[in-house]
Amino acid sequence: MNDSIVTDIEAELADLSRALTEPGERECLRCYVLRMLHEFGCDGTLRWAKYWRDLRAPRAQALARKLAYRGGHCDCEVIFNVYPRYPQTTKLQPCAGVSRRGCTKPCALGPP
Ligand SMILES: [Zn+2]
Ligand SMILES: [Zn+2]
């Protein structure tokens, strides 16, 4: 096995998993967490919410505490308790986008 090929493949796989889990440029916290729960499920922590925070709103240090205060102790609870206003649908809706990068408010997507 050629070492440089292995390194290339590893780099490509790393890129791929990053592309799958990276929040969209203007994707809101709620739509991102929902999308990740759909793909990977909840592991009982705020794994995706914190990942979104680290990449999109690194200065929102109190975010996890605020979510927990509102009943969001893990990613699925964030969706059920913190952002319950989501269109009743079995299909994920594309995020309507937040106006400003780093904004922790959910996008305008909601029930009519
Ligand atoms: Zn959960
Ligand atoms: Zn959204």
From TrEMBL:
Instruction: State the name under which the record lists this protein.
Output: DUF2695 domain-containing protein
User: What InterPro entries is this protein classified in?
Assistant: DUF2695
Q: Name one Pfam family in it.
A: DUF2695
